[in-house]
Amino acid sequence: MDLRLGLDVAINSAINFGKSAIGILTGKFENVDQIQNAISKGGILDGISDLIDISSKRAKDKGLITSTIATAIKDSKNTIVKSIENNIENELEKQVKSIKKISDYSTKWNNCYDVKDFEGMEKALKNIKKYLKETIPLETTLKEARVIENLHSLIKNKGEFNLTEEEISLAEKLAN
Questions:
Q1: Are residues 14 and 69 in the same domain?
Q2: Low-confidence ranges of the chain (pLDDT < 70)
Q3: pLDDT tens digit string along 107-134?
Q4: Domain limits at 74?
Q5: Which of 22, 34, 144, 174 is the most buried (most CB within 10 A)?
Q6: How far is it, in rounded angstroms, from Cα 151 to Cα 155?
């Protein structure tokens, strides 16, 4: 079972890495890990940057390109990497703003609900849906965290790790 879990983790990591690379090109990421893979020290952008630096240096050293072209390649690479980093930073800012808007419109929906203003509820819901489309889907991460909280509480209260299938299923259902 440990081998299977290890394989699942490796496969999911590889998929996430690939999606990070695609996110760099498209500016769209499915989760925070993908953004982190793209911009972290030693991440995808650093790897691409290093590859270009090494390649242009070797090409210059072997006389395949001139020193001027090698410098131009490095300068262009730095401009492109900076632009990508700025785009990712802008995407993160957009995500924060979208989450704030969702929170604001959720408050408005609740206020309209309290005064039985269905029209206001509809308007708030329309805006919630609009901003949800722009937000990285965090539901899976939040649900997983809630399942962990529930399982941890069960183990703590029982004083043992032997949980029944029903207890595990209940912990998962309560997380929804």
A1: yes
A2: 1-44, 138, 141
A3: 999 999 999 999 999 999 999 999 888 8
A4: 2-137
A5: 34
A6: 6
120/150 same-domain check: no
What is the b/e burial string over 49-85, where b = at least 16 CB atoms within 10 angstroms of the residue's CB? beebeeebeeebeeeebeeeebeebbeebeeebeebe
* Shared-domain flag, residues 124 and 150: no
User: How many domains is the chain built from?
Assistant: 2
Long-range contacts of 38-44 (CB under 8 A, 24+ apart): 38/88, 39/85, 39/88, 44/17, 44/20
| 32: Cβ contacts below 8 Å, ≥ 6 apart | 136, 141
Contact 136, 166 (CB under 8 A): no
- Residue 160 Cα to chain centre, angstroms: 34
* Amino acid at residue number 66: T
What is the token pair recorded at 92? Answer: 């993160």
Percent of the chain having pLDDT more than 70?
73
Is there a single domain that holds both residue 94 and residue 148? no
